[in-house]
Amino acid sequence: MFKTICYKSEANASLNLLEFEALFNQTQLKNNSHNITGVLVKRDNVFFQILEGNPIIIDTVYEEIKKDHRHSNILELLNKSIAQLNFKSFDIGYAVIKDTDALYGLQKFVTGLQQNNIENSPLFLQIIEELLTEH
């Protein structure tokens, strides 16, 4: 059995481009080293993240995320057990989405999940489409 956690938050307005790049690199390395799959999306001042993996590791990582000063106003959208990893085949593991083209690629991937009736995909697709239509 696996676990997924999905949340949205507001990026700290004082972070500069180098700090964002460092955050993305640290997140990707850490999650890959812990066999966590999923995505981190930054669109304007919004972070959206999906984490999947071992329940103990996911809970530990999420507790660290909630204490991170680089974002605030965390809105937990999903926190539950899942039977399979849905994002393992997206970008080979854990992916960071920083531009609109990559976000459209994620939308296409999640649309495929939804067509295959993969659990939670309608929620993920809704959030991604909201991110694409903002601004």
TrEMBL record:
The UniProt entry, under SMART domains, shows: BLUF
**PROSITE patterns in alphabetical order:** BLUF
In Swiss-Prot or TrEMBL terms, this protein is called BLUF domain-containing protein
What InterPro entries does the database record attribute to this sequence? Acylphosphatase-like_dom_sf, BLUF_domain
Query: In terms of domain of life, where is this protein from?
Result: Bacteria
Q: Where is the BLUF domain?
A: 2-93
